[in-house]
Amino acid sequence: MNIYTIGFTKKSAEQFFTILKDNKISKICDVRLNNSNQLAGFSKGRDLKFFLSRIGNIEYSHELIFAPTKEILDKASSGNAQIKYGADVIHRIVYSTKKNGLKELKAAGIEVVEGVCRDEAEKLNEVFLKWIVHKMPFIVVKTAMTLDGKIATVSGDSKWITNEKSRKFVHQLRDLYDGILIGIGTVLADNPTLTTRLDHLGKNPVRIIVDSKARIPLDSIVITDKSAHTILAVTERASQEKIAALLQVGIEVIVTKEKADRLDLSALLKILAEKNICSILVEGGSRINYSFFVEHLVDKVHCFIAPKIIGGTDAASPVGGKGTFYMKDAYQLNDITTERFDEDILITGYVR
Ligand SMILES: NC(=O)c1ccc[n+]([C@@H]2O[C@H](COP(=O)([O-])OP(=O)(O)OC[C@H]3O[C@@H](n4cnc5c(N)ncnc54)[C@H](OP(=O)(O)O)[C@@H]3O)[C@@H](O)[C@H]2O)c1
């Protein structure tokens, strides 16, 4: 019997098993966690099904997916050569990313193979690994631009750049990640709802609005709509009266320090990570996107390109700010995939 250990939560594991069963995997057992703290880390279990469905062909067939329990490691360290899981005797354990317990397992005469499917496993766990190792949320920047690189017309109109299919995918992303973040510029321009709208019941991410001076109008949808929790991130520049008014209507306000005259995003993300917001979908606009790039806070990018041309020298592009001076300083995306959503193209990549 072979064992793969990937290290996700029980809930996500159950979904994973359903997929494995659908793919006629011969042997399946429960996954237990060595460390119950991990339960807080993985993004609500939905991620796995989504990632797997996007990875396509599962190559884990005929294997058992399993994380060694404390019980098994105890048996191994006591030198018990015959370690069982249910009725099965374990002879070989195949690790993807986790390494705890290797010594004990080897000492008990079990063959241990490390690093199998490591890339896939790390991708499955990208949110959790970022959060657990760096104590920061996994940051995904999603933008939608026209073929001439604009995210809105000169008048600020951006509804809609992409087609319905692309927008549905964005709602799947919202369902997947813990938080959704925009700058106050986007609230003022679009007055968005930032909720998940899918045919089946999706979960709403926590709405995070970055608004140094608390300029947000109290009748904005993200304030009045109670279907999702809203956090407003401000600095000391925000008036106490406005903060009181926001608290009064149930908005959570986080006062964050400043860095170079701007709200310090890195400090904000640390606070959000402590609140178990492990992943955040950044949906622009161009000023906030630039700050995320310039501060090296971005992990992953989803960029939609719609075959439309709107022109306008002053129309914004996905990433604004001062920009880089030389091409050599560009933020390079790696591990690129491209997908078609009818006529729209989605480019996904990692900033590493
Ligand atoms: N197609 C798309 O994908 C897409 C997505 C979103 C938005 N848009 C469009 O983008 C336009 C809005 O873009 P925008 O650039 O004005 O808005 P934004 O990036 O959403 O918000 C910018 C504002 O956020 C505040 N902020 C606080 N801390 C910041 C920091 N560290 N870095 C950057 N900003 C910080 C600043 O205001 P304070 O100094 O007052 O705090 C700043 O002016 C709209 O036309 C909208 O339709 C398009």
What is the tally of beta strands?
17
Q: List bound small molecules.
A: NADP nicotinamide-adenine-dinucleotide phosphate
Arrangement of strands in the largest sheet: 11-10-9-8-14-7-15-17-16
Backbone CA Rg: 23 Å
- The mean pLDDT is 79
For the largest beta-sheet, the strand count, sense and barrel status come to:
9 strands, mixed
> Treating each run of at least 4 consecutive H or I residues as one helix, how many helices?
13
Key structural traits:
single chain, 4-stranded parallel β-sheet, 13 helices, globular, binds NADP nicotinamide-adenine-dinucleotide phosphate
Question: How are the SSEs ordered, and which strands pair?
Answer:
Layout: E1 3-5, H1 10-22, H2 38-41, H3 46-55, E2 64-65, H4 70-77, E3 84-85, E4 88-89, E5 92-95, H5 102-107, E6 111-113, H6 118-124, H7 126-134, E7 138-146, H8 164-176, E8 179-183, H9 184-190, E9 206-210, H10 221-224, E10 230-234, H11 240-248, E11 252-255, E12 258-259, E13 262-263, H12 265-274, E14 279-282, H13 286-294, E15 300-306, E16 333-341, E17 344-351
